[in-house]
Amino acid sequence: MAGRRNMPLGLGLAAFVVLLDQVTKFWLLQTMLQSGGRFIDLTDFFGIVLVWNHGVTFGMFNSADAALNGVIFSLLAAVIVAALLVWLWRAAAGLIVGAIGLVIGGAVGNVVDRLRLGAVVDFLDVHVGDWHWPAFNVADAAICVGVGLMVIDGLIARREASN
């Protein structure tokens, strides 16, 4: 019963992530496509770049059939989101509720891109000199932070269980 009370918090966070992700991508596409730009260097280590990702995390499988990737990765994301919704329904409280919400929001944000645009829009570019980390977006960041919080929550729960 406790999980059901916390479900709106997780779903609200997921909705916020989807909204923030889609607004930033909309802004980026308007800015970059209208100006014909491909890269904006903001600092010595951070910039904005327009990358169409047909693959998965960090561009893996990016060179494969884009249409097939879109279908496969969207279906996989739907299965993962369904499992996360069950977990959220059962989650008692605390860090895990927010973590699940972040991952759900990130997954949905990227699926929206795949269904609407045929690829995920990545645009955050972290670099050191000429070495660039693969471009990512708000949804990717939410997924990474959410998974990190899940690990921390699991470690805390394990520590509390052993005491």
Query: What's the end-to-end separation, in Å?
Result: 26 Å
How do the helices and strands follow one another from N- to C-terminus? HEEHHEEH
Number of domains: 1
What is the overall pLDDT average?
86
Major β-sheet profile: 4 strands, antiparallel
- Which of globular, elongated, flat, extended, rod-shaped describes the shape? globular
| Class from helix and strand fractions | alpha+beta
Poorly predicted regions? none
Distinct helical segment count:
4
Write the layout of secondary structure elements.
Layout: H1 2-35, E1 39-41, E2 46-53, H2 66-90, H3 95-117, E3 120-128, E4 131-132, H4 138-162
Antiparallel strand pairs: 1-2, 2-3, 3-4
Keywords:
4-stranded antiparallel β-sheet, alpha+beta, 13% strand, 163 residues, 4 strands, 66% helix
Description:
- The protein has one domain.
- The model has no long low-confidence stretch (mean pLDDT 86).
- The protein is of the alpha+beta class.
- The protein has helices at residues 2-35, 66-90, 95-117, 138-162; strands at 39-41, 46-53, 120-128, 131-132.
- A hairpin with a 2-residue loop joins β3 (120-128) and β4.
- The relative contact order is 0.19.
Explain briefly what this protein structure is.
With 163 residues, this protein is α+β, with helices and mostly antiparallel strands.
